[in-house]
User: Fold this.
Amino acid sequence: MFREMVRKNQQLSQQECIELLKSETRGVLAVLGDEDYPYASPMNHFYNDEDGCIYFHCGRQQSHRLDSLKKHDKVSFCLYDKGYRKEGDWALNVKSVIVFGRMEIVDDKETMIDIATKLSHKFTLDDEYIRKEIEQHGHRTLLLKLIPEHICGKLVKES
Assistant:
């Protein structure tokens, strides 16, 4: 169903893909939008080891993303790291991951609090700040759960 990578020598292992999903803070979530145009937007995410799913938070209000998800639950999520240069080389080496899967809307307050707390820990360890933010804004927050069907990644040398 999903295409095999053409340049297999650049392919990352599943574990390397998972590590990038855990460590990187942002990626781009793409949905099938209005008039079947792709709609992609940057999103913070949390990879959950417990269920292998990727979680996002967003507002409960009507939006292009939520309207699109109600019509079509298939999505893709792409992220890439900051890259590195080998000593004496100008070319940047970048690792990227693409996840294909189906998105569910999770409307459970306890799950939202748990995942929002874990996601927030990627940015700050200030538990008091996190607690206050969730207390103030949790009632307006919706949780999105990406259930992966295919995860692939690669290392590209930009030269």
Summary: Helices lie at 14-23, 64-71, 109-120, 127-137.
